[in-house]
Each structure stands twice: as structure tokens, then as C-alpha cells.
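Example 9 (inverse folding). The structure is encoded as follows.
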């Protein structure tokens, strides 16, 4: 029995004392689950628990590391939307490959990229980073940092120091130089080539498993507004920050 309840029982022996579930959680977690809300007697304050959980909006971005339109969308639209909305609102998949081409030479995959060998390097660095980090919340800020800088290939270590110091830049570099990096890029090539309809430009945006001209246009003009429209759950506070649409830009094949 909790100390306060035990004291009451001693001071008032005839008083019936009912032990309530212990609340050992900070106030900001009271509404994180129904069990915690009950334990902390906060059910009446947790309006979110009365609504069934809605599935997140699924967004897949097919892009290349040096395409100006891809960098603009990732930095100005996608990262900002991800920051403003709760994690349960949207799931993001990143596929760095874009308008590249691959061929097998001597049993090994080689890649040719739209913006040259530096773009192939940038694509592979990001693919290896994602493989090494595994967790989206760990690698996405690093990719944002790389894409928002002057060089998307020369700032990996600096971006890791700021956003993910626990990651080993040496392991990522080894992945890029070795067979694993080529295998990861080949997988991204397969994912890109399997798109239906086939991609005509990048960034190529797939939302909830579909790509249409209308969804692409809306996503590039105001991704936050689109995600807030598509999300079927209670609208998060970040949806109030939706801004005016921006012009659309692409890198054609």
C-alpha cells in the first residue's frame, strides 16, 4: 500500500481505503496509452484515446543525391513535414537512385548517374548510411544535413558529428567501397525499375502505394497540406502550419 494510504489507515481505522493503480509516469506520458491513463486517473484528459488509431500516410521518395529538385523537396518539404507531424502520422521510405543506370561488368555492378560519378557516390553514401543506422529517426537528419549543404558527398563526417555521433563514418565508408554498397545500390535500382507507372523524372513521389500527376503536384507544392488532408486520424497540431503551395520542379530522365 502506498505510504499516504497506509497513513490514512492508521489515523482512521474505520475508513475503507481503496488502493489505486500506481502512477509512476511523468505527466507528458499520461495519454500515451490507455493503461497509463487509467493508472494516472487521466482518462478524461486524454481525448486521443477515444479515437481509434489511424494508419499513417505512406510516402516513398525516389530521388538522386545531386538533383536540385530532389534536394529542394527533401530539405524544404519532406524534412519540414516530418519535423512538424507526430511519428504516427507518416511513414517515409527513401530510395536514392533516381535516373541512374546499372550494368554488370566482371560480375560486379557498376552505375552511371545523371549528374556524374559524384552523384553515384552520394547515392551510395546515403544507402550505406541507412543500412548502418537502420533507424529512420537516426539517418534522416543526417541525410537532410548532407543535402542542405554545399556538397552532398563531402560533409558526411560533419553531419554525423552533429546528428548521429554514435555512428561510425569508417564503417559507412567501408560499405561504400565494398561489395555491400554495390548490392544496396542494385536493390535500389530494382525498386526504382519496378515502379508502376515507370518514373519519368525525380523526385518521384509515391503516396499510399500510388503515384499520380495530381498527388505529385500536391506533394511538391505543399507536402504538409497533402499529408494532413490524407491522414484519417485526429489532425495533429502541426497541420495548422500548412503554408501556401510552392512551384514544382523536377529532374527529367
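The amino acid assigned to each position is listed next.
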Amino acid at each position: 500500500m502506498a505510504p499516504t494510504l497506509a497513513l490514512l489507515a492508521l489515523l482512521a481505522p474505520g475508513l475503507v481505503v481503496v488502493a489505486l493503480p500506481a502512477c509512476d509516469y511523468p505527466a507528458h506520458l499520461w495519454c500515451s496509452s490507455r493503461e497509463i491513463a487509467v493508472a494516472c486517473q487521466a482518462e478524461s484528459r486524454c481525448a486521443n484515446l477515444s479515437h481509434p488509431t489511424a494508419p499513417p500516410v505512406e510516402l516513398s521518395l525516389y530521388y538522386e543525391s545531386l538533383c536540385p529538385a530532389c534536394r529542394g523537396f527533401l530539405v524544404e518539404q519532406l524534412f519540414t513535414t516530418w519535423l512538424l507531424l507526430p511519428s504516427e502520422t507518416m511513414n517515409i521510405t527513401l530510395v536514392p537512385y533516381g535516373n541512374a543506370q546499372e550494368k554488370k561488368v566482371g560480375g560486379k555492378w557498376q552505375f552511371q548517374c545523371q549528374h556524374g560519378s559524384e552523384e553515384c557516390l552520394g547515392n551510395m553514401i546515403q544507402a550505406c548510411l541507412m543500412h548502418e543506422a537502420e533507424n529512420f529517426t537516426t539517418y534522416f537528419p543526417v541525410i537532410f544535413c548532407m543535402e542542405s549543404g554545399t556538397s552532398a558527398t563531402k560533409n558526411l563526417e560533419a553531419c554525423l558529428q552533429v546528428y548521429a555521433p554514435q555512428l561510425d563514418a569508417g564503417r559507412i565508408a567501408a560499405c561504400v567501397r565494398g561489395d555491400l554498397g554495390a548490392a544496396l545500390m542494385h536493390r535500389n535500382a530494382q525498386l526504382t525499375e519496378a515502379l508502376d507507372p515507370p518514373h519519368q523524372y525525380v523526385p518521384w513521389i509515391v503516396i499510399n502505394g500510388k503515384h499520380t500527376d495530381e498527388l505529385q503536384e500536391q506533394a511538391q507544392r505543399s507536402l504538409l497540406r497533402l499529408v494532413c488532408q490524407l491522414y484519417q486520424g485526429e489532425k495533429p497540431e502541426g497541420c495548422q502550419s500548412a503554408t501556401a503551395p510552392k512551384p514544382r520542379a523536377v529532374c527529367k530522365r
